[in-house]
Amino acid sequence: MYLSTTLLSLISASTTLASNLPPPQQLFSNPSTPLTPTYRIPTVHESAIQARRILHLESIGTLSTIFPSTHSTENRPGDVSGTPIGLMDYYGDCEPSSGNPTILAISIATSFKNVDAGSNITLSLRWHPPNAGKRPYSAAALPRFSLVGYLEYLSPEDVLKHAVPACFVGYHPDAAAWLPGNRIHESKWVRLVVQDVYWIGGFGDRAYIGWIPVTEWQSVTKAEIDDCKLPGEKSGWHWTSWFGL
């Protein structure tokens, strides 16, 4: 069996890439000084812009909560009390001026029952480049982050002001079946009020890793979000760019 020329070229390029990567201790933390004059770590504000663009373009994340010590309406093992659990859920960037994601809370869902029982909550997101399956890339080199905060119910005025149902269904057409007032499940509109942001922009020698102050998160403008281009959004990128090179 013969390997194609493209595959052989990819293997050769991957070997070259691996030999040129910085030592492991510099991959997941910010170096005290740049490794070379050509490397520049994005600023905290630039990282906040990237995070806000991801929030705007993505629509599915992981809600993490903690099981309460007591429960009365769910048949589950007692030994999971205090254990964290992360579950996929929908969200929409329906209040872009604040940076607080909108969530359709299904009362019967585990994440929201845990919050009602007193659990903290985070929403974790990562960037999925367009056409990612058509070119090689390193997921570890791409941005991801977690939003730490609390849930707050939206008032009828907020729902109307931000056209929340239309916005959310625009992100998730199937969610039209379980909007508030449906006959399947009790549901309510909530926002995740962002209090802290933990950001991993990629490998630490070329991306910021650390906390983004909520003031930076909230100060990002629509123009900055629209002008930002994430890895894989630009046309004509060489595959090494997907590794942050």
The named CATH superfamily of the domain at 44-73 and 80-129 and 141-227: Electron Transport, Fmn-binding Protein, Chain A
The radius of gyration is 21 Å
**What is the end-to-end distance?**
33 Å
Estimate the strand proportion.
15-25%
| Annotated CATH topology of the domain at 44-73 and 80-129 and 141-227 | Pnp Oxidase, Chain A
- Overall body shape: globular
Q: What string, H for helix and E for strand, traces the elements in order?
A: HHEEEHEEHHEEHH
CATH class of the domain at 44-73 and 80-129 and 141-227: Mainly Beta
**Helical segment tally?**
7
Q: Work out the helicity level.
A: 25-40%
Number of DSSP-assigned strands: 7
Mean pLDDT: 84
Instruction: Please describe the biggest sheet, giving its number of strands, its sense, and whether it closes into a barrel.
Output: 7 strands, antiparallel
Backbone structural class: alpha+beta
Do you know the CATH architecture of the domain at 44-73 and 80-129 and 141-227? Roll
Low-confidence stretches: 13-18, 236-245
Question: Can you walk me through this structure?
Answer:
- The chain has a domain at 44-73 and 80-129 and 141-227: Pnp Oxidase, Chain A (Roll), CATH 2.30.110.
- The longest helix is centred in the first third of the chain and has 16 residues, at 5-20.
- Strand 6 (187-200) and strand 7 form a beta hairpin.
- It has helices spanning 5-20, 44-57, 110-116, 156-161, 164-171, 214-219, 222-227; strands spanning 60-66, 84-90, 102-106, 121-126, 144-153, 187-200, 209-212.
- By secondary structure, the chain is an alpha+beta fold.
- Strands 1, 2, 3, 4, 5, 6 and 7 form a 7-stranded antiparallel sheet that branches.
- The chain is globular and about 55 Å long.
- Residues 13-18 and 236-245 have low confidence and may be disordered.
